[in-house]
Each structure stands twice: as structure tokens, then as C-alpha cells.
Amino acid sequence: MKSKLIEYKEVFTNKNFIISLFSSIIFLMVAIIINFYAGTYAAGVASNPVTDIILSNIDYYNVHYLFINGSILFTIFVVFVYLQKPERIPFTVKTTALFVLIRSLFIILTHIGPFAEQQIIYQGFFSNLSFGADLFFSGHTGMPFLFALVFWKDKIIRYIFILFSLSFAVIVLMAHIHYSIDVFSAFFITYTIFHLSEKIFVKDRKMFYELGVEKPILDIKVKVN
């Protein structure tokens, strides 16, 4: 506990970290605002749905509880990772913001409507986050994969995020929330976004590795007798 407080003090008294942290938050807020207007526009001009090689051949499954609870669990895990290594927040947040921004540009390009059997599974607060026509590419598939790439050197963290990504990919297809192209393209586009982020936010990536104590967030060792 004492060592963790020392690490926090070192990080939050670092001027470069503070500047980078605030700039990352501002960038994310701007990206979210742009995403809102892009989603609203896409929903307003959405056309008719099209056939899909997967969705047209599988039944609709009511897996809204997995979708919503999985999203909550993913958010909690991200917060846990942030708390363990706060020096990694700026690069991760800026990369997330870049992801949201680029996805916003994609969803306004083509105006395909939701699949005919799509069910709106958001309720209450979540209904404010669902546009219905913001389909390409799948954010629920891409975002966990993005975090897997960001934390690639932490094997356990990487595998957990990949599991989240694959699980969401299956869930959104089962619930007919996304077309198959939205899901499968997410991995390739996200991979490109990650490498763009490394090129753009060089100092933040360097801080990600060098500031604070460098060791895995989850260091699980198995003893072999």
C-alpha cells in the first residue's frame, strides 16, 4: 500500500503527466461530442437494411443481459487497470479518443439501416447512447481489442481484453445488433488506429512505459511441483 502511494505521488506530481492527462481528457470529450452528432446524423438518414451472410442465417437471440452486463464489467476492468498504473492513462485515453473520432467518420459515410430483426436492447440511461444506425465498425468489438493492443506486453491483461473483444463479437451477431462486416472489419481498423496512435502520441507512449514502476499489472505465476 505504501509503495503504491509513493508511485501515485511520483506520477501525479509529474508536470508532463498532468499536462498530458488534461489534454487527453479534452481530446476524448471532443471525440465524444463529434461521435454524438455523427450517430444522430447516421440515424436520421439511415436507409433500408440489407442481407447478411451470418445474420440472415442465424436466429435472433435475446442476449441483452450479456451485452449490458458485459459492457459494465468491461468498464470496471478498465478502471481497475487505470488505478493500478495511472501513468498509462494519457496514452490510453488519447488512443481511445482517436478510435472514437475515426469511427465517427466511418459511420457517416454509408447509411445502411439496422438489420431487419435488430432489437433495441438499451433501456433507461443506455437508450441515450444507442443511435441504432451507427453500425460500421463495431465499437464493442474494436474497443476491447484496442486495449489488448495497448497493453500487449502485459500478457494476462492482453488475454482478458481479447476475451472481451471476441465475446462482444459473438454477442452483437447473436443479437443482430451489427452486420458481420461491422464485426470482422473492427479488428483490422482497430489495429491501424493503434499504430497511428503510437506515431501521433509518441511522448505519451514513452510515458506509458517509463514513468513509475515498470512491472506487469497482473503478475500471475503458476508453481509447478
How does this structure look, described?
The chain is an all-alpha fold. The chain has one domain. Helix content is 64%, strand content 0%. It has helices at 2-12, 15-45, 64-84, 89-107, 139-150, 155-174, 180-200, 202-210. Helix 2 (15-45) packs parallel to helix 4, helix 3 (64-84) runs antiparallel to helix 6 (155-174) and helix 5 runs parallel beside helix 7 (180-200). It starts with a helix and ends in a 15-residue tail after the last helix.
Question: What keywords describe this structure?
Answer:
64% helix; 225 residues; globular; single chain; mainly alpha
Summarize the SSE layout with pairings:
Layout: H1 2-12, H2 15-45, H3 64-84, H4 89-107, H5 139-150, H6 155-174, H7 180-200, H8 202-210
Number of domains: 1
Please state the CA-atom Rg, rounded to the nearest Å. 19 Å
Can you tell me the overall shape?
Answer: globular
Distance between the termini: 31 Å
The unreliable regions are 119-129
- By secondary-structure content and strand pairing, the structural class works out as mainly alpha
Sheet having the most strands? none
**How many DSSP H or I helices?**
8
Order of helices and strands: HHHHHHHH
Estimated share of beta-strand residues: under 5%
Quick synopsis:
With 225 residues, this protein is mainly α.
